Fold each of these.
Amino acid sequence: MASDANSNPNELSAASNGSPLQRCGRCLKAHYCSTECQRADWQNHKRSCKKSDYTPPEGMSSAGGFLDTMFGGSNLDKLTKRECYIQLIDSYRMRVEDDYKYGADNHGLYAGEDPRPEFAHFLDLAEKRNGLLPQWWNKESKTACEAMGADGSKENWADLSCAVEKHDIQDHYKDNMMPMKLRLLAEKVYRKRVAGGL
């Protein structure tokens, strides 16, 4: 079902299956119950579809710009060493969780493996990403970050042998956007999204 800009979006809040309506990515005005509906309506809609005048805030004009704003190195630079290590560990742990949950890709902890070698590889990749890690990062930093992840004491939030889920991250950081920030950081390290997509 297609809806134009004159329709009341509150009346069209969900598709027949109960999921929210999707919006045309170009004009941001037409609403559809599915991608298939949007494709079927394209011949009619393309006559009135004009690029939206909406301009995202500075630094968020593209996914790359958003990533660069969040994790171009400058934000990790603003953290203490301990906070930086924890966010790198949590970014890795969140990625392992997402690969398991969305990509049916069991590795590390979810495959019953020691997660430390895989996390060391994650840090190796992060070191190759120009400007991602803080300027103070060095071999000793990597060793300290790996040691923090290997610390299995009860007091250590960043224990690599403990799985984390989205709600755990939100509760720990008191930030509902933190799971997404950590996912974006992992995408920048791996240079790819989760296999199943998010």
Note: The longest strand covers residues 2-3.
Amino acid sequence: MAGLLKKPLKLALVQLATGADKSINLSCARSKVLEASKAGASLVVLPECFNSPYGCQYFPSYAETLFPSPPTKDQSPTFHALSSLAKESKAYLLGGSIPEYVPSTKKYYNTSLLFSPEGTLLATHRKVHLFDIDIPGKITFRESDVLSPGNKLTLVDVPPYGKIALAICYDIRFPELATIAARKGCFLLLYPGAFNLTTGALHWALQARARAMDNQVYVALCSPARDMEASYNAWGHSMVVDPNAKVLVEAGEKEEIVYAELEEGKIEETRKGIPLYTQRRFDVYPDISKGDVKYEE
């Protein structure tokens, strides 16, 4: 029987440095994505808010309209840049996330876009869990002051490799999403994310390894590069973790691309050694993947 990952996959995480100029951000992203594809990556990931600075004060002015799809170039230059870039690079391309605006509801979202190597939009994911925290003396942030949450899980087939799950940053703190995705057959959980210097130091690597360990799948987190002159300081340290919770690769703080080879059969090997999937007690507790799960907005 074929495994969840049907053939080896080279994954690239682009830890991009972003600034105030959207056109420069898109140009830099293009350069890095093409560099990654030339290095053999078949799936390239950009970070959360890769086309803009991260912050509630920036979301409205950088937001683009994505629906009805496809939008015009005036409505979403980023959509068309990503589509063209995926086609040019001949790779799957996850446009980490961008601020999205829906004129009919006047709502803003933090939205990720996945394109095929042919430049076709395969999936969108709106951040489900908004980043609202208050750690006294450290950081207070409320995405919900501007953004609205998405209302679905996002699982998508990426032939010929298998199925992946998309989520964004704070979504990783909610293991239900990861558990459902893994039980629905995903081999990889992708989280573009911009943790900060407080939460990054505490939980970035821990969350990545925990989601991998619990579900025995690959997990990848892609951060923006750290800019200490920006109003929000991203943690960096983009990383890929294997199904045994081993960190395969980890970036530093600055702009760089990191690569990982995802191995066919590694998930099955891990699950055979520690057979959680045959040991769960659904007679004692429920299987959340069989509950009322939303896959459409």
Note: Residues 197-215 form the longest helix (19 residues).
Amino acid sequence: MRTRSTSNEEESTFRTHYTLFPLTFPAGPPPAGPFKVDLTRLKKEFLQLQSRAHPDLHQGNNKDRAEGISAAINDAYKTLQHPLPRAQYILSLRGTEIADYVDDSSDQGLIMEVLEVREAIEDAKTPEEIAKLQGLNAERIRDCVERLEEFFAKDDLPGARTEVGRLKYWCSIEEALREWEVGKNAD
């Protein structure tokens, strides 16, 4: 959500997902604020905002307005609570389109590693094998998130774009691992 504010704020002020959660993100998005999110604080602020904006608490025209506000809060919360959509959103705020970083196939080592992990998922025969792969993949995701924190703190957008591409691959693996069933392909 990047819309002009409709309150008495200056006309040039933009409302972002970060401005919807001022207690969680007092400094705003990176590089001014951190990439890392206190998920407990975010959820608490989300619930507080929804307790005031929920459409069932309003009537008439106020209900329509509350539906819009509630939807914006939900969208912002879903985006900010997970590293991949949060990073993509931050890059979009900075003018980077998804096509600029989604398919960075120049890292052949990464692509080979992803293909090997997909093959391991397909070959897995037990939940224990999947649990081991999930643990390894969680480490890869943590590493990507740590590098994103560094890139955003330094305002290194090219580095962040590349890392988002890597994170996208590992999040795809995470999804395949969640959906694993004995004998089912990881597609």
Note: The CA atoms of residues 53 and 70 lie 6 Å apart.
Amino acid sequence: MSSLSNRPPPSIVTISTISTSSSKRPAQSEDFPFPLRHSFPAFYTLQPTLLTRTAQLALWSSLIQRYHAHHHLYRLQLSTALSTPLFHNTLIRKRLSRMSLLEIIDYMCKTEKDGGGGQRAEWIFIGGKGKTSEDKNEAWIWWKRPEEWAEVLATWVDKTGQKGMVLTWYELLNGEAVKGEQWLGMDEEVLGRCLGVLMKKGKAQVFGEEGEKGVKFF
């Protein structure tokens, strides 16, 4: 006797199927290895069931962080990101919608206590704009939060004997001394946020004008 009667209806999507199922090979973006779920069509539609939806938001959050870390990217611009391989899988002809991406970034912005993704993103509002969905077009992606980057920098300062030394921002971002370091080529605004954390702790001092900034570590 056929076992078809024991199978779940086709419309039911579970956490496990979103996480692992795929009948196609995962898409590739340069040398970034996408997980199998990236080639599962249902992954691109946020599910109505709260438990499944929350798990799906967490999976997207993790994927976005790993993708940005891999490519050393710090900003996500919705108007262009939706056409990238991260959100548009041409092999299965599926693309995440703008509203879904808005919800994912909103989830990433919230603390875990508030049911979010641990503040792994932050909306960038320019020119005093409000916080409506129309104003949300660009966000920081914190695969390392500013305070985490600050700890990385502080460890490097101790390890390399940079205390008391003065470095230009260019040297700190692109100099020979930082070749091979995680923050090589970092967005200057992100560096400013990181150094701000160290300044509050009395571990750094920033001085100079735009384009000629320097930092001294303590």
Note: The mean pLDDT is 85.
